[in-house]
Amino acid sequence: MVSPNQPASLDCKKVVVVGSSACGKTCLVNRATTNAYSKVYQQTYGADLIIKNSSDGKKGSLKVWCTGGHERYRPLLEQFYVDVHAAISQSSFMELPFWYNEVKRNSPEALIILVALKSDEADNVVIQPQDAMKQALDWNVEFRAVSAKTGTNVNELFEYIIDAVHRSH
Ligand SMILES: Nc1nc2c(ncn2[C@@H]2O[C@H](COP(=O)(O)OP(=O)(O)OP(=O)(O)O)[C@@H](O)[C@H]2O)c(=O)[nH]1
Ligand SMILES: [Mg+2]
To answer: What domain of life is recorded for the organism (predicted)?
Structure first.
């Protein structure tokens, strides 16, 4: 059995995906790992653990904790932020500092990536990419815009994380 605060093994780095409820975290991880997409919303209860391998199968793997964004889970999530190598976050703009601070406080060295999800719905998104990009610059973190629906930039995002965490940690 794997516990959330168990350190990742040498070639399998721990990644946590955080953000507000229904922002698209599970769909992003599903697209990255199974290349599937569903428009039916199924809330994540607590957190799911998924293994993501690099596309060539050689560069190493990620142990991805995809957390549930509903407020009722927030007191439980702190255990997932410990020893994190990388964190992916997207949410309403008001909540973004909350997720950023949670990860930063528990894993100050983690690679943090601010991800604008649902880029296929450019006219409807809650955070405009230019605002997210500005926030990422202020925090000195990476910024990516992706769509789990179309798959745009999803593989690139995970390959970037695999390269970065296996190179620097
Ligand atoms: N248009 C569009 N909709 C998306 C995309 N990704 C997710 N959605 C939709 O957004 C809704 C929520 O997606 P989830 O991935 O389940 O959201 P979540 O962040 O995991 O939610 P919690 O588990 O409650 O934290 C679903 O109805 C998805 O179909 C996307 O790239 N484009
Ligand atoms: Mg989910």
So the answer is: Eukaryota
